[in-house]
Amino acid sequence: MQIAGKTALILGAAKGIGKHIALALAAAGARVVLTYYDWPEESRRMQDEFAALGYDHLAIKADLRDPADIDRLFADIDRRAAGLHILINNIERGGMPVVHGPYTPEQWDLEMATTLKAKWFVFNRALPLLQASGDGTVINFSSIAGLMGRSGPAGHQGLAPACARGAAGYHRPHPAWPHRRHG
């Protein structure tokens, strides 16, 4: 896929892998739409860094658990970007029980609202634009738990097959996939 001149929406771009993917896509010539919601210091640094590098970008604050905010995000994309070619569906919350202790109802709700529902809502809203581009691509990032399991929820498991039915360019890499420890 030619990256230059394409528009890429990167969820969770304030820090970590989302920010680094956005930097790589922008360096390759893509216009990047960067979402952020919390992490105020990291969000500010992300915006400053993209501006200082002179990359073509839009930084949009959106609570992706809220369908109305997703509609507002896509209205901004429709108004300010030339279509949508790439979706980097990179958000998860909740935490690993082994790190954070037993799940509370609030952690469970946050994980389901973010890891499952928000990714699905964004994908559904993005799909017509990706299809209209003629070569749209979706990359869903998820936890290694999808391959190895864990004690706790893994709600994104149902998302991958459902997304794959709707988009020919659907990918779901796992950070440890190239270097598996178990098998």
CATH superfamily: NAD(P)-binding Rossmann-like Domain
Classified by CATH, the class is Alpha Beta
Assign the CATH topology: Rossmann fold
Mean pLDDT: 80
**What class, by secondary structure content?**
alpha/beta
Residue runs with pLDDT of under 50 for 5 or more positions = 147-165, 173-183
Shape: globular
Query: How many individual domains?
Result: 1
Order of helices and strands: EHEHEHEHHEHHE
Radius of gyration: 16 Å
Task: Explain the layout of strands and helices.
Blueprint: E1 7-10, H1 16-27, E2 31-36, H2 40-53, E3 57-61, H3 67-80, E4 86-89, H4 97-100, H5 105-133, E5 137-140, H6 145-148, H7 159-166, E6 170-171
Walkthrough of the structure:
The chain is globular. It has a 6-stranded parallel sheet, sandwiched between helices. The protein has 183 residues and is α/β, with parallel strands linked by helices. Helix 3 packs parallel to helix 5. It has one domain: NAD(P)-binding Rossmann-like Domain (Rossmann fold, 3-Layer(aba) Sandwich), CATH 3.40.50.720.
Give a brief description.
By secondary structure, the chain is an alpha/beta fold. The chain has helices at 16-27, 40-53, 67-80, 97-100, 105-133, 145-148, 159-166, and strands at 7-10, 31-36, 57-61, 86-89, 137-140, 170-171. The protein has 7 helices and 6 strands; from the N terminus they run E-H-E-H-E-H-E-H-H-E-H-H-E.
